[in-house]
Write a structure and sequence with these properties.
about 575 residues; alpha+beta; elongated
């Protein structure tokens, strides 16, 4: 059952006979194309096409444009068009209930009931006892139909009662089909050890997908836990005598049911175990998505699922795992029980697992955008203010924010972070903290160097990097000059080269920032290194000592960034 939503969507149409038939909808072109192309040549599908439907508010109608057409040209040329409908996201025929979009809507509208009964949408559609249970609830089905009808008539201006009646008629047709097949014993019964025989029996049937779904779902019907259902499905795939072709067909059905199963948070918790926080749970889901789930106490069925997903054999299941993570990322549920730093670190760790992996109906750009959105919310002004509230020092605040950078997702969010750090370093408070501080000036100089190194090693925008690095250099230079460290080095004992060596050691001691501060010391050291000074530096030393002194000076110059002096 479809629902209203975005003004544009993409439909997948399939050609099995003389006429095109609606199969499913997708939110974007890439997902629709990826789902449509593998269908050609399978289960009687002669051709597929993807159609973009754009709603025109002026005419209150949808305008169609075909963006993909693939398959047998002779069949395409003779095919009759799809019958006109007001909105093909909705269910207008019984088969629409079985489509990807139809099953997704069933999952959304009946989530609580499905979890309570421990069944998936596909099971509900293919097992008469499950349908009886839904009908027995009375008000649940009535509420779902009313809610769906109201959403669907918002653009068409049709009476709600008229659309509700259509939906009840479609539900009735689906029920009659299922119960008639049951009455006439047309629903195949799958028994343990009989998978190969069943697949052979239905292989030539035109509706073999429907029959296999009924058989597998009927086989799962007596099982009352998600764990036992996954175990049963994985065992079916391992039954002896099932050859490669029939096994692929069986896997297609099991993949869909497993994907629906994994869409339930209740089922996921039962399969991967309870977690202390959401980040840990999503980490386990991400590992399963990547085929890397390695919990020591993992169920054998989960290990087999992990292998199949990792090998790319269960696209629906893998897509459900990705959707599960993205769904949670879109919420405001905290990932951890810690502060903002813990939340941002958890998000960054999770993002790095997904950032390079494709191969599902979820596009990589969609994954990145979901994480960027969560990262943006984490950097809200109020959230950051609360995080810094107990930290009065401007430098301490800047350090705390810079420590977040590695796990902030998206260049725009990194710019936002830099926007919080900049005023903390340029304001009078930071300058006062640098000039007037407890402890030795060397400690503060090293702190400023460490902060600059964090900035330079970051993935901040180059402009932001230059601004923050430059401001830290200014603060470092200010303290370096006021501390009198350089004049004392220039007055140290020994000749000009000895004093130059003392200054060069300042350049390599980790107390001078890159920029003006280090350049000031470099210039003063170079001014002391004259020909006369070098002669005096070497006078009175034997050859071994002169070699050692040259090596010391050369190494210091190199470490201070002045390797081209000699």
């Amino acid at each position: 059952m479809g629902t209203g939503g975005d003004q544009d969507h993409y439909e997948i149409h399939v050609l099995k006979g003389p006429s095109w038939a609606f199969f499913a909808t997708a939110p974007d072109r890439e997902e629709a194309v990826d789902a449509a192309l593998p269908m050609v040549g399978r289960d009687g599908v002669l051709a597929v096409k993807v159609v973009r439907e754009s709603f025109d508010p002026v005419s209150s109608s949808f305008k169609s444009r075909t963006v993909l057409l693939e398959g047998r040209q002779d069949a395409i040329s003779k095919a009759k068009p799809l019958p006109n409908r007001e909105d093909s996201r909705f269910c207008f025929k019984v088969d629409d209930f079985y489509s990807l979009y139809g099953r997704q809507q069933i999952a959304i509208l009946l989530r609580q009931e499905l979890d309570r009964w421990v069944i998936t949408p596909t099971e509900l559609l293919h097992v008469p006892d499950h349908v009886d249970r839904l009908q027995a609830t009375g008000t649940v089905l009535q509420h779902v139909v009313q809610k769906t009808a109201i959403m669907q008539v918002q653009q068409t201006k049709r009476p709600v009662t008229e659309r509700a009646k259509e939906l009840y008629d479609l539900i009735g047709q689906a029920e009659r089909r299922l119960f008639t097949d049951k009455k006439h014993k047309r629903l195949p019964i799958l028994e343990k050890g009989g998978t190969a025989a069943l697949l052979e029996t239905i292989d030539a049937e035109q509706n073999r997908l429907y029959l296999l779904n009924c058989a597998v779902c009927g086989y799962l019907a007596p099982l009352k836990t998600w764990r036992s259902k996954l175990e049963a499905m994985m065992a079916l795939l391992d039954e002896p005598g099932v050859t490669a072709g029939p096994r692929r067909f069986l896997l297609q059905v099991i993949d869909v049911i497993t994907g629906e199963l994994l869409s339930s948070s209740v089922a996921l918790t039962e399969l991967v175990g309870a977690s202390p926080d959401l980040a840990t749970q999503l980490g386990a889901v991400a590992d399963l998505y990547l085929g890397r789930f390695a919990a020591a106490d993992a169920l054998p069925a989960v290990r087999m699922l992990n292998q199949l997903v990792g090998e790319g054999q269960m696209i629906s299941a893998r897509t459900a795992l990705a959707r599960r993570v993205l769904g949670e990322i879109a919420t405001t549920r905290p990932l951890t029980k810690g502060n903002l730093a813990a939340e941002i670190a958890a998000l960054g760790t999770l993002y790095r697992r997904f950032d390079h992996v494709e191969g599902t109906l979820v596009q990589l750009d969609e994954i990145r955008e979901a994480f960027r959105g969560r990262s943006e919310r984490q950097l809200g002004s109020g959230v950051v203010s609360d995080y810094l509230a107990a930290t009065p020092s401007s430098l301490d605040r800047a350090e705390k924010l810079l420590a977040l950078e590695a796990n902030v997702i998206g260049l725009g969010n990194k710019r936002r972070l830099a926007g919080f750090v900049g005023p903390l370093l340029t304001g009078p408070d930071a300058q006062g903290e640098v000039v007037v501080h407890e402890g030795h000036p060397m400690d503060m100089l090293r702190r400023l160097v460490a902060m600059q190194q964090v900035v330079l090693a970051s993935q901040l925008d180059d402009q932001d990097k230059d601004k923050l690095s430059g401001r830290l250099d200014q603060l470092n230079l200010l303290l370096f000059e006021r501390s009198g460290i350089l004049p004392r080095a220039e007055r140290s004992a020994g000749g000009p080269i000895d004093r130059a060596i003392t200054i060069l050691r300042l350049c390599t001691a980790g107390i001078l920032t890159q920029g003006q501060s280090r350049e000031r010391a470099q210039r003063r050291a170079l001014a002391l290194i004259t020909r006369e000074g070098l002669i005096a530096f070497m006078t009175g030393a034997d050859e071994a000592e002169r070699t050692a002194r040259r090596a010391i000076l050369r190494n210091l110059l190199q470490d201070a960034g002045l390797e081209n002096v000699f």
